[in-house]
Every structure is written in structure tokens, then in C-alpha cells.
Amino acid sequence: LRCLQISSFANSSWTRTDGSAWLGALQTHSWSNGSDIHFLRPWSQGTLSDHQWEQLQQVFWVYRRGFTREIQGFAKMLHLDYPFEVQVLAGCEVHPGSPLKSFFHSAFQGSDILNFQRTSWVPAPDAPHWAEVVSKELNKDQYVKDTVEWLLSDICPQLVTSLLEAGQQDLEKQVKPEAWLSSGPPPGPGRLLLVCHVSGFYPEPVWVRWMRGQQEQPGAQQGDVLPNADETWYLRVTLDVAAGEAAGLTCRVRHSSLGGQDIVLYWG
Ligand SMILES: *[C@@H]1O[C@H](CO)[C@@H](O)[C@H](O)[C@H]1NC(C)=O
Ligand SMILES: *[C@@H]1O[C@H](CO)[C@@H](O)[C@H](O)[C@H]1NC(C)=O
Question: Residue 216 forms beta bridges with which residues?
């Protein structure tokens, strides 16, 4: 579970904070400045009761107000120049049978500045010297440290377990890819760029190869797996071949949703 926060400070009086939460690759929550945390899924409340969720909303309100005030205080004390951006990445990683990994990283103007480790604040490696001043100051507040530790070590893993349970159907969904071929801009005289497109699949892991018979073609270029707007994925794999050698090549697609039946497309 990853919570992302972006806080913009335009000047000493104008600020806003927005955020989102992600369970693996799926966004589960969002919050925009001045509003409650919104559910993006029917299961975003996990198995928490309304009362438990209400309490969590309260904690986040207090956090957001406190965060803004603290940063404005530090900006004044350390004579930081406006405008600036502060980002936070916080959450936990839960693996069956291994210890919980939780994290809280913050960045100033895009560079790591301060982390929460175990029970206290520590400056990030290579942070400017004033990060030391900030961490010393923050470490004086035992209540906030206890709260952050509680959120990271107790609440976060509870939320993960509870979201996994409530969202099981959505999280385990399988969506079959569609695949098609096209030709790209010719890479040179007498050459062809074969493009195999694979789209609309979920989850993300997929195997796509250009083949001749059972032989994988070396030199194929695999793009990044890109998100579609409907929370499925897209991938393209290209192959640069001499025009005379394209016949008989196939694009083969393997994905968990296909139940062992690969998609095979023949060039030409
Ligand atoms: C602070 O920034 C906001 C947003 O850019 C701007 O509208 C406002 O006039 C600024 N206020 C001051 C006092 O500079
Ligand atoms: C963001 O929310 C805070 C707290 O509700 C408010 O004081 C501030 O004016 C808001 N900022 C903007 C840009 O709306």
C-alpha cells in the first residue's frame, strides 16, 4: 500500500495538499485539498467499520493541518524561498511469511530530504544540512512520532489485509488481451519494422515474442508496459527485418488470462 502526497506552497499564505493511495497497481483512494478521503472502489473501506474509518479520517485531517503548519514554520525559521513543493511517499509492503516493511519518505523540490525510520525522523543521505535541523525539531514531538509509527506498523498492514479481503475479486480479475500487427516506419531501404500490439490485459505480467516456428527472434525491441485508461495494460514489441524475411514470422502472446492458449498472429 502506497500513499502519495503532493503539497504545493506558493507563498507564505497559499498552499494545497492532494494525495492518492494505491494497492499494488490499483488506485484505491484519493483526496484533494480540503476534502475527505474518497473511496475509488466499492471495497476501499476494506473490512473497517464506519466508526473505525471515521477515526482514520480524523487522524488524516489532524495530520494535514499539522503538516501544513509545520512546513510553513520551517520555511520561516530556515528562510526557505517560495514557491516550493513537498512530496511524501508512505506505506507498507506485506509479504506472507516475512517481516513487514514500512516506509515514509519525504522530498523537497523533488529531492529526498527526510525519512521516518523505525521510531524517529532521520535526514535522507545527501540532504541539505537544514534537514538535520528539521529532523531534530520533529524528533522532539513524541506524540507525532508515536502516531506515525502506529500508522505505519499497525494501521497500514491491517488496511492491506482488509483491502485484500474486501477487494479480492477485483484484485484477482483476469482480463484477456487483444493483439494485432502493423508495420512501423521502415528502418531503412529494403527493411520492415513489424509491430505487435497487445492491449487490454490484466494483470500486468505478460510474455510477447516474435518467433519463427519455435525459434524466438533475437533483436526484438520490447516497449514499456503502459497503462490504458480502463486499468488494463498495453505493450508493443517491434522487430526490424529484411523485407524478404518477414513472411512466416509470428507474434506469440502468453498471459495468465489465456489459460495456456497462447495468441499467435502470423505476419502477412
Ligand atoms: C500567493 O500565491 C497565490 C497563488 O499563486 C496568489 O494567487 C496570491 O496572490 C499569492 N499571495 C501573495 C500574498 O503573494
Ligand atoms: C486547502 O485546504 C486548506 C484547509 O482546508 C485551506 O486552508 C486552503 O486554503 C486550501 N487551499 C486551496 C488552494 O484551496
Answer: 211
